[in-house]
Amino acid sequence: GRIIETTEISKVYKMGSEIINALVSISINIDKGEYVAFMGPSGSGKSTLMNIIGCLDTPSSGTYILNNNDVSDLTENELAEIRNKEIGFVFQTFNLLPRATSLDNVALPLIYAGLNKYDREEKAMAALASVGLADRASHKPNELSGGQRQRVAIARALVNDPSIILADEPTGNLDSKTSYSIMDLFQELHDKGNTIIMVTHEDDIAHYAHRIVRLRDGLIESDEINENVIATG
Ligand code: ADP
Ligand code: ADP
């Protein structure tokens, strides 16, 4: 089934008298279970598009259907609710709470979801186990390697069982060996049926995805099946 459907979405920023067309009539469909990489030079609109797809922002015009809901025109609060339910975020800088353990970091989205402490910890533990870090549950971020921190962040993204995992430069702060091990993990998540959308500058990282979309000047320059998927495992 279809999980994302945007129809001619545009985003216009006004900076004083200057008008910036960050996205120009973008129509893109993504099905459940796809693994897509967004590429493109700086300023091409990747963050703007990811913010809209992730319900952090709304388009200036056009429609965005997420999991059969029209989310083009929601209020801040409505967007936040959809975001907590539908989207798992992974960031370049991990964005973990420095004083909280892995378990508490992973359990955090479940507080917003209203689960009790026992259920939160059970689910967070299962998510940590799924990224290979069951034995790091009581460690704090500064007691973990970069790769382990990103695994904790991925567990946090997964814990709500989101419709989509949105990863913004997920390997941007990691050395290449660790980057490839994180990409192996994404590959596993893809094999389990997760829908993954990632932004990356790096060609070798993008080639783990099964579809590569290139943006330029707010337009889709190309949208192709990746014929050279990096096989792992
Ligand atoms: P990318 O992620 O590919 O680097 P962005 O989506 O961040 O591109 O930016 C696309 C265009 O929109 C750029 O010209 C950028 O300067 C502009 N832009 C992005 N965010 C804002 C904002 N909040 N206000 C004004 N202009 C913005
Ligand atoms: P580091 O920065 O310490 O190299 P990694 O991200 O490579 O961290 O690995 C973190 C933990 O996950 C390690 O305990 C490692 O054994 C384990 N691990 C590495 N690759 C995988 C994988 N593909 N699937 C599951 N666990 C993995």
Automatic annotation (TrEMBL):
GO terms for molecular function: ATP binding. This is ABC transporter ATP-binding protein. Belongs to the ABC transporter superfamily. Residues 4-233 form the ABC transporter domain. The keyword ATP-binding applies. InterPro entries: AAA+_ATPase, ABC_transporter-like_ATP-bd, ABC_transporter-like_CS, MacB-like_ATP-bd, P-loop_NTPase. SUPFAM superfamilies: P-loop containing nucleoside triphosphate hydrolases (SSF52540). It comes from Splendidivirga corallicola. PANTHER family: CELL DIVISION ATP-BINDING PROTEIN FTSE, LIPOPROTEIN-RELEASING SYSTEM ATP-BINDING PROTEIN LOLD. PROSITE patterns: ABC_TRANSPORTER_1, ABC_TRANSPORTER_2. Keywords: ATP-binding, Nucleotide-binding, Translocase, Transport. Gene3D superfamilies: P-loop containing nucleotide triphosphate hydrolases.
